[in-house]
Write a structure and sequence with these properties.
With 160 residues, the protein is mostly helical. It contains seven helices and two strands, in the order H-H-H-E-E-H-H-H-H.
């Protein structure tokens, strides 16, 4: 499975947006420059997470994005599904029915064993993403990134 680049971008942008001080917003331009990604494509990802109700966007010189809900209520899965959609990663087309040894019009009694394994794997992946919130990510970043780097990044972002 390969996710769109916009999933990575949306996750990183949500991490930045979640760290904003109360009442602040950040522009698509600032997020684009900070992450070094094309503004036009990033805009599409931000629109998708906005339409999903994860962030709120406003236009104008003081416009930009902020979280629409508390960080502890937004999971990685919410963001991934906002960008990618809510479809299964595996689509069983029942090719086992093409077996020339089957009697005509013979229909299997239960879903394909391969499909069941793939659907279970898909659900495990979704469970893992569902279990991690933006608040969890913030706590991890505070441990992983040196304080000076966080302060310098925050200063740069808030000056834009």
């Amino acid at each position: 499975m390969i996710l769109k680049n916009q999933v990575e971008w949306a996750l990183h942008c949500c991490a930045v947006i979640a760290a904003l001080p109360e009442g602040k917003r950040i522009s698509t331009k600032a997020l684009s420059e900070f992450h070094g990604v094309p503004k036009e494509y990033l805009s599409k990802a931000l629109q998708a997470i906005s339409q999903a109700g994860l962030v709120e966007g406003t236009l104008g010189p003081k416009g930009g994005y902020r979280l629409a809900r508390p960080a502890h209520e937004i999971s990685f899965l919410d963001i991934v599904e906002a960008v990618e959609g809510r479809r299964n990663t595996f689509n069983c087309t029942e090719i086992r029915g093409n077996n020339p040894c089957l009697e005509e019009k013979s229909k299997p009694a239960k879903p394909c064993a391969i499909a069941r394994v793939m659907w279970n794997a898909d659900e495990a992946w979704r469970d893992q993403l569902r279990a991690v919130t933006l608040m969890d990510l913030q706590e991890t970043l505070l441990r992983d990134i040196p304080r000076e780097e966080l302060e310098k990044s925050a200063e740069w972002l808030l000056s834009q």
